[in-house]
Amino acid sequence: MSDIRALQERLGHTFADPALLRQALTHRSFSTDHNERLEFLGDAVLDCVLSPLLMARLPEASEGDLHRARADLVCQASLHEQALALGMPPLLHLGTGLERAGGRDQASLLADAFEALIGAVHLDGGFNAAAGVIERLFATQLASPALGKQQKDAKTALQELLQRHRQPPPEYAVVSEAGTPQQPLFTVMCRVPAHELAGMGSGPSRRAAEQAAAGVAMVELREKTGWE
């Protein structure tokens, strides 16, 4: 079975127009026919589908609580986890420079590609097809008892998890600084030395990038150890 077919089976949608799937997996460093417009669409579709699902799941929640619950579902770490579960990293089309820089491991890039994939499903099969995919992929998170409850920020949660298991704290390092003075983009690596794993995250400030990287490292640590 090809990786593309496996991706579509995990997604629960077979593309009538394979060109849309290819575009969703194409970064701007590889081609002018890239996925940024699909990413824009996918972001909107995710919000549109998840909002009524959250209202039904959390009937007593305030508007602010619903905003926070939705933000937890569509944050970079969550969408990165979805991309990993779908097996997207090896299927991405990246430019040579980005490939050499480890683009397939960048949480922000994978999260964006996942949004683009949702946008592609919407264009290929319509809103109902995209809604069905989103509801299936987020079913576990939507059913979680923790949904809508105030969560610790990723850095605090990761530090406390390591402390509970008597492990040394994570280490953070800025990998790159890009963008412009008006719109900077920091990329940070969060290392968990005791388990030889690391998470990459990007954001408009070093603090935001550290939070994103910690979220990715938390997902990988839990997958590796089974810790909760």
Q: Would you spell out the secondary-structure blueprint of this structure?
A:
Layout: H1 3-11, H2 18-24, H3 36-57, H4 63-74, H5 76-86, H6 96-100, H7 107-125, H8 127-137, H9 139-143, H10 154-164, E1 171-179, E2 184-192, E3 197-203, H11 206-225
Antiparallel strand pairs: 1-2, 2-3
Strand content: 5-15%
Q: Name the CATH homologous superfamily of the largest domain.
A: Ribonuclease III domain
Helix content: 55-70%
How do the SSEs run, as a string of H and E? HHHHHHHHHHEEEH
CATH architecture of the largest domain: Orthogonal Bundle
The assigned structural class equals: mainly alpha
Major sheet characteristics: 3 strands, antiparallel
Number of domains: 2
Computed CA radius of gyration, to the nearest angstrom: 18 Å
CATH class of the largest domain: Mainly Alpha
Low-pLDDT segments: none
- Shape summary: globular
How are strands sequenced across the largest beta sheet? 1-2-3
Individual helix count: 11
Ends distance? 34 Å
What's the CATH topology label of the largest domain?
Answer: Ribonuclease iii, N-terminal Endonuclease Domain, Chain A
Roughly what is the average pLDDT, rounded to an integer?
91
Please provide the count of β strands: 3
